[in-house]
Amino acid sequence: MRRTALLASGALLAALLPLTAAGASAADDPAPVPVDRFEGEVPFAHQPAESIFTWGGDADDPPVLRLAARADVPEGERVLAGGYDISGYGGFTHDFAADRPAHDWSAHRGIRFWWEGHGTGRKTAFEIKDGGAHGEASELWTTSFTDDFTGWKRIELPFTDFTYRTDYQPVGGIDHVLGLTRMWGYAVTLPAGSRGDFAMDQVELYGRADPSLRASVTTDAAVHPVKEGGTATVRVTVATTGSAPLDEPVTVAYDTAGGTATAGTDYTPVSGTLTFPAGTASGATRTLTVRTLKDRSAETAETIPLKLTVDGAKAPAETPQVVVDAHGLPYLDSRLPVRERVADLLSRMSLREKAGQMTQAERAALTDPGDIATHALGSLLSGGGSTPTPNTPEAWARMIDSFQLRTRATRLQIPLIYGVDAVHGHNNLAGATITPHNIGIGATRDPQLAEKLGSVTASEVRATGIPWDFAPCLCVTRDERWGRSYESFGEDPALVESLETVVQGLQGRADGRGLSRDDKVLATAKHFLGDGGTAYGSSTTGTYTIDQGVTTVTRRQLEAIHLAPYVTAVGRGIGSVMPSYSSLDLVGDGRGPVKMHARADMVTGVLKQRLGFDGFVISDWNAVDQLPGDYAAQVRASVGAGVDMMMVPYTYKEFSATLADEARAGRIDEKRIDDAVSRILTQKFRLGLFEHPYADTTGAKDIGSAAHRAVARQAAAESQVLLKNTGGLLPLRKDQKVYVAGSNADDLGNQTGGWTLTWQGASGTHTTGTTILQAMRKAGGNVTYSKDASAPTAGYDAGVVVVGETPYAEGVGDVGNGHDLRLSAADQAAVDKVCAAMKCAVLIVSGRPQLLGDRLGRIDALVASWLPGTEGDGVADVLYGRRPFTGQLPVTWPRSEAQLPINVGDASYDPQFPFGWGLTTLTKIPAGGEARLRALAAAAAAAERAGADRTGRALVARARLIVQQRVRDRMTQAVAQPFAAADHLLLTGRYGAAAAHLLRAYRAAG
């Protein structure tokens, strides 16, 4: 039955429905109007059809729905039932058809439905969609109900209980008034964090409309901080449905009462009434003031609630508070050393406040913004894709400032530290400069450029009010089947260490004295320890195959490969470290695999004690839940291991309460808590958050600027690795007629990859940038484009086929989890057709090597383009010879998947292209052959002895060019082994040995 028919028959159906005590209506109420009966009248589909559909934060989060026939149904024969196991967020929506009229719910009091309870005590959010063009472009209003019962219960949700969503609005909000005259459906957000089942039946509108819905009263803010002796001004506004003038008067009685401030001593009490007469325009504002009084004593912050009693309109959702700022206390004195300020503040904190500082929540998961003060939260984050609406720098700053404002209502006014995954630029922000992913930066071999990129990212992130970045990833990728491999600079720890200059780009000086600048952020080294070494097939997380698996190594291997980058990071003053989801199985220690979040020997023993790390350790997303035992045991294990702040996106209340309970019971040493809180507070003081908690948007004008994009463009160009160039096809000439094809030639989303606007990324155009095709045209190339190579191929001088991967992130991208290392059938067909018709260059846009098999012989030029970011111009720069190709492989390029894992230094090493390989253009190759190589080796050894690093590197680079010129397309195991070893030796400063290995490779090439 269509929705129109169902609504038309509402009165008839209502007459047939059984009435219970809970569901009986007053005699003068209109008859209930059914919205959903779940008898099959509404399909499981998507917009624009009227439909019920599921959604979630990742592939595992959407619930599984079914229409179930049950004997105990409240109405009809079937109910909507389902199961869920949500780690991020997930739920389902019923959208009315986008091509049909919206529904008018304004005659009714609210919406109700039957729900089967399980007594879990967990909250379920219920959302309605008001106004706008259709259900996915409407204004969202939300409330919730608690599963504190068992069996069927009718849940009634009055429309007066719904509040405007401040965390997400698909169209940025419309009028911030719940009009109810153009309704597009509803959505249910199910609880995250544990597996569950639900059943729902008979959604309907009930009761007579509440008159207060015609108008609502709001205040300009929930918290009004003021310095002692100052006067707070509170603005009170009335708004009406449809912005019509008031048809009846609205009065607002106000009174200062309660709170921690003392009337007459700390402030002058006020009371009175504000009146908005009938006919007052919607949006009219009145003001009232509260004057505070000054004394000579130092004090913590004190609150003055402003009680509002509203007649004739809906009252504000919460009582506004005037707050007299804390003052005169040592921790507020910026002239004191940070150590003294931390000690003073810590001495004043309660256990509850300390637990709050160790708790980080996802901003979209706050059940109430007031929870920031109620639970004394120390941190919030935006997970991948968790953005304000609209997604602009201004909206980010306003959002974060609104959260920061809530901390002013706490006794000690400790500011939040807000974190975000800006892993290749400010990648959650639309219009930001998106740089190549780390795998491409590894290909540049350019530490100075890495530092510049860090500076660009820090500048754009801090300008939106965010002081903390969950980057860089210092993983050493050892198996390219890993879905995170593009987050790594490469497979050699020496390469990773060389590019940790990015830490200074993000943070500034190693001593932390630059962190308070408006263009620097706290950096995070992740994921400690061994995340890049997990064995294929060892993961136990969902359908993942390698991510979050087990790294089995000897202690020597652990130190040399996976720990080495953290030694460097600590030396560079890294401010925070994030442990890995993975487990470490250290050969010989007798413990077997142990999750890193529980390895006190590594987190505390190695990182903090041996390496001297003085920052704080932040957990990964919900990682505490992966530890064995009940929740209290999980908290004890992670905190005891040395994790200082827990990223518990949806369970922040449970974590902070459990932590405090365990400490009171003596099962967690409060000294361990004091150490954790001291580390967190130290970084907050260094960041200058106590003096400047709100966003400094001075640098917002530079977000996505030409100067920033120029740095990203340089990085895109330097990251291009020319693997093959038969006949000198590249660079192209602008007078050549070029045929361009392939799935990734004109797709900005594929070019930027995962962690771009959303966690997993997406194909298509979703931010500002230039595709490779667009860049080739901008460069002046004579280009014809046919994505699938279906256009005629005759008459062209050369072809450029841009192929590769579509976006993914983390274990979702693991090979074997719906992914492999082969080109898609469409990409293979495009390569085959173009390369059969003309000389062709194939560009592979991907996060890892792709297997080409026997196609390599039919390709004239091959380029590893990695994931170059938004600046496709950088790719065109090397294609058309504006810049030379200079990139080198940061990972080994295998011949087949059977070779994996394959890495530099392996005893059996026979790749398609070795680590460090990268042809060049526009560069004269030194002449002289073997004799010249011997001379270069001698000179390199002398430079090494003299400590002349720049000279040593230049000499080895010349030798590499000679070898590559000789090898060309004749790569053998005898060549690959010494060639790759030479690049490793170069990275470790052994220039003489590097040149000697290149001489061996030259001789092997025959």
Automatic annotation (TrEMBL):
EC numbers: 3.2.1.21
Record GO terms (molecular function): beta-glucosidase activity; cellulase activity
UniProt-listed GO biological process terms: cell communication; cellulose catabolic process
Pfam family, one: Calx-beta
Residues annotated as signal peptide: 1-26
GO cellular component: membrane
Catalysis: reaction(s): Hydrolysis of terminal, non-reducing beta-D-glucosyl residues with release of beta-D-glucose
Domain Calx-beta: 204-309
Keywords from the UniProt entry: Calcium, Glycosidase, Hydrolase, Repeat, Signal
Family to which the UniProt record says this protein belongs: Belongs to the glycosyl hydrolase 3 family.
PANTHER family (UniProt xref): LYSOSOMAL BETA GLUCOSIDASE, PERIPLASMIC BETA-GLUCOSIDASE-RELATED
Name the UniProt record assigns to this protein: beta-glucosidase
